[in-house]
Amino acid sequence: MRKRVFSGIQPTGSLMIGNYLGAMQNYVKLQDDYDCVYCIVDLHAITIQQDPKELKARSREVTGLLLAAGIDPKRSILFIQSHISAHSELAWILNCFIPMGWMQRMTQFKEKSAKHREQVSVGLFDYPALMAADILLYNTDVVPVGEDQKQHVELARDAAQRFNSIYGETFVLPEPLIPDVGARIMGLDDPTKKMSKSETASGHAIDLLDPPDAIRAKIMRATTDSQREIRFDSSRPGIFNLLTIYHLFSRRSQKDIEAQFEGKGYSDFKEALAEVVIEGLRPLQERYRELTADPTHIDSILADSAARARPTAEKVLAEARRKVGLG
Ligand code: AMP
Ligand code: TRP
Question: pLDDT digits over 162-174, tens only?
Answer without folding.
Answer: 999 999 999 999 9
